[in-house]
Design a protein that fits this description.
By secondary structure, this protein is of the alpha+beta class. About 55% of the residues lie in helices and about 20% in strands. The protein is built from 9 helices and 9 strands. Strands 6, 7, 8 and 9 form a 4-stranded antiparallel sheet that branches. A 3-stranded antiparallel sheet has the order 3-2-5, with no helix packed on it. Mean pLDDT is about 80; it is low at about 290-303.
């Protein structure tokens, strides 16, 4: 019988190593597959401590948290033949680890992302190719992204993954089409601006014509009213003159003669030639004037 304890130490170490290698822990953020010679023997989806056969079985873990993938720019042709360059951002996660393993093999997440990108690009081409380019840039964009998500989700189910969401991050025109598109947009805006200017000029002309008509009507009404007021004032003035003449003809003739002298003998007036015995000078030759000829003074004043 072997009684040396040193003989058992390597054996115990080997047994301890085998025992430790038989244990594995599944984290709550992952699922685990137990493989035996490359074949799936069991799937562990619950977190905790588990056991496998050492040296024969191996454990492959897959992260079940939501993953993100950004597709490369893709050129698509909508119904109106206006090419667009689009790219998308998708969120996905592993839902069936065994099917995922069977679909991607040892490629893991990189292989899954490559296949997902092809699936999403195909869905983008099919959905955007069935609508005009204006729909991609309008409020219909959200419904189009939902259609892309649903189609990609159906195709990705064979990989054991779920496509949660797909969003178009960029929708641009190809570089070679930008200049022509900008020129067409500029021409449309210039045509719209010319139409607006023409409508503005037409409206301004109508306003200007209405204003001119209003001015003419106001001026005509003002002239008519002023003529009426002037005629009434002249009639009142003549009535006052007539009343004054009727009350004292001599004094009226005297005051009217003085007014005539004042207007006729101003320095800036033109020289006049009259005979000395003219009736115009009646009140200059006497203190009382010739009361028998008042009309002569008035006649000279009119001259």
């Amino acid at each position: 019988m072997i009684r040396n304890p040193a003989f058992f130490l390597p054996v115990l170490a080997i047994l301890a190593a085998l025992g430790l290698s038989a244990l594995y822990v599944v984290d709550e953020r992952e699922n685990a597959l137990v493989l035996q010679f490359g074949q799936v023997k069991s799937v562990r989806t619950e977190p905790g401590l588990n056991v496998k056969i050492p040296l024969i079985q191996e454990v492959v873990r897959y992260d079940i948290r939501i993953q993100g993938i950004l597709t490369q720019p893709l050129e698509v042709t909508p119904l109106d033949d206006r090419r667009l360059v689009v790219d998308a951002f998708a969120r996905w996660r592993i839902t069936e680890p065994q099917r995922f393993r069977e679909a991607v093999g040892m490629g893991g997440l990189p292989a899954a992302q490559a296949r997902l990108e092809r699936i999403i690009n195909a869905a983008i081409r099919e959905v955007l190719g069935s609508v005009p380019s204006g729909a991609v840039l309008s409020e219909e964009r959200t419904s189009l992204m939902n259609r892309i998500r649903d189609q990609a989700r159906r195709e990705a189910a064979a990989l054991g993954v779920e496509v949660i969401d797909v969003r178009l991050t960029r929708t641009d025109l190809p570089e070679q089409n930008l200049a022509a598109t900008f020129a067409r947009m500029r021409a449309e805006r210039e045509r719209e601006a010319a139409d607006e200017i023409a409508r503005g000029n037409e409206a301004a002309q109508r306003v200007r014509a209405q204003a001119d008509r209003t001015v003419v009507e106001l001026v005509s009404a003002a002239n008519r009213e002023s003529e009426i007021i002037r005629g009434e004032a002249d009639a009142r003035r003549n009535a006052i003159y007539a009343a004054a003449f009727g009350r004292d003809p001599e004094f009226f003739s005297f005051t009217r003669s003085l007014t005539a002298y004042e207007r006729a003998l101003r320095r800036e007036n033109t020289s006049i030639v009259l005979s000395p015995d003219s009736m115009f000078f009646d009140y200059l030759r006497s203190d009382t004037g010739n009361s028998s000829r008042p009309s002569g003074v008035l006649q000279a004043e009119r001259r």
